[in-house]
Amino acid sequence: MREGSLRAPLFLYTYSMSDSRNYLIKHGESGFTADLPVNPTIPDTNNYLASNFFRFTLPRVSTLTYFAQSVAMPGIQLSPVEMTNTLGRANQFVGGRFDHEPLVVQFIVDEETLNYQEIFNWMKKIANYDNDTNIIAIDQKDKFVSDANIFLTNSAFQEKRVVVFKNAYPIALSGIQFSSTLNDNEPIIASVTLNFETYSFETVS
Questions:
Q1: Is residue 38's pLDDT more than 80?
Q2: What is the DSSP letter of 80?
Q3: What would the pLDDT profile of 84-125 be if each residue is shown by its tens digit?
Q4: Integer CA distances (angstroms), 154 to 40, 47, 126, 201, 205, in order
Q5: Burial of 156 by CB count in 10 Å (0-12 exposed, 13-18 middle, 19+ buried)?
Q6: Residue 118 carries which DSSP code?
Q7: In degrees, to the nearest 5, what angle opens at C-alpha 94 toward C-alphas 200 and 80?
Q8: Helix ranges (DSSP H) in 43-167
Q9: Are the C-beta atoms of 166 and 144 separated by less than 8 Å?
Q10: Is residue 79 over pLDDT 80?
Q11: Considering the entire predicted model, what is its pTM?
Q12: How far is CA 8 from the centre of its chain?
């Protein structure tokens, strides 16, 4: 240290999540909540979730479930409530609306296109496609939706958690691209986009 220079002393302090939680509860810090995570500071396992540690099920379309290749876990966004004022930036508060992305599933189309037709026929039942005889009444709603599930597995491929998507239904089905220029017999991959009401994480018993 150069003579005559000043340097602030360095203090090191380590704390756990429980220490922080107890402090906030005791002192009632403004802008904080006592509803902190209850997960342990050091988890029971440090194994990661791999992209192939999953199993997708959609009971209404069993053939598609068998040929499912990938699932895009949808993101979720909570918009704040805004209140205008005389300044250039609106005040924002918690408690806005939720917006989530749709659930997208990619699957191999079987040679008889059974799984592709499963989705196509499902969509035709939801709305009028080639006639105007379909009547969607409130008491018929349960006939048009189905819960979708993503089972998450550990490194031994044992199911530990499941993500449940309530009341899912298809809103988009991709096209099929044929080509005679390919030398190898490559499988055709199609995708279906599903809308849903809510999703939740549950433990597999």
A1: no
A2: P
A3: 888 888 888 888 889 999 999 999 999 999 999 999 999 998
A4: 19, 8, 37, 15, 14
A5: exposed
A6: H
A7: 90
A8: 62-67, 114-126
A9: no
A10: yes
A11: 0.76
A12: 47
